[in-house]
Amino acid sequence: MSLDILLEDLWSDYISIAPIAKEIHDILLEQGEEINNDHIAFRTFSSKGMGIEEMEVFFSAFGYARKGDYSFSEKKLNAIHLEHQSDATYPKIFLSELRYKELSARAQEIIEREITKVKDLSISELFKKKDVFSISSSEYRELLDESEYGAWLCALGFRANHFTILVNTLKKFNNLNELNDLLISKGISLNRAGGLIKGNPDVYLEQSSTMASRIEVKFTDKSETVPSCYYEFALRYSLSSGELYQGFVTNSADKIFESTNDELAK
């Protein structure tokens, strides 16, 4: 499989469960914009065979290399970001993993049971199957009480958590505020955790995002509507070298993770 086909498959799956992204994409295309993707994010568990190191190996076969390491203590996450080594037009890849062994014994029990079901699958197979886990609605809520991230992953599986528009390449928007204003005027709900805009020029990155779309998930006992995926927007600033900053800001990313938080959407 080529990288282009992989990205097309990821996008098709993503918009199938995140209609908000397709809506925004179409709004901008109607305004004559050419949309460039800054990065794609994925969630996983810190477990042999499916952690961020294994995912890094998977993406390295497509020309990617690690460029940054991050840690989110409160959310119990490790993360890295990858950049394509020969073609900067390809999106960055942001990989995060839940240190689930820092959760309660009950949460670990649920997660380890699910991990066991897929332990023999490759990263490629996990992405192809996507909905690899099967938990009950009560187990979902148990996980939700401890880790919204873990609950999301067990409900949605291995797929892109979000895509990101690079605001720098938009022609009609001079800043992130203007884009946010347009989206709000269209009735689109944005993530307000930490403010509509996370970051500032001093850290060379500003970000905002929608709240996640909602989809029906079939749990083992019944179906329920839960948050799926969201669309992010990134405005990058130039370093003293004149090159755009390509990394991520932990404090800002921590708030972006809240885009799938049901409580915040209420």
Automatic annotation (TrEMBL):
Its cofactor is Fe(2+). InterPro entries: HGLS. It comes from the Bacteria. Keywords: Dioxygenase, Iron, Oxidoreductase. One of its GO terms (molecular function) is dioxygenase activity. Its EC number is 1.13.11.93. It holds the Pfam family HGLS. Belongs to the 2-oxoadipate dioxygenase/decarboxylase family. PANTHER family: 2-OXOADIPATE DIOXYGENASE_DECARBOXYLASE, CHLOROPLASTIC, DUF1338 DOMAIN-CONTAINING PROTEIN. This is 2-oxoadipate dioxygenase/decarboxylase. It comes from Halobacteriovorax marinus (strain ATCC BAA-682 / DSM 15412 / SJ) (Bacteriovorax marinus).
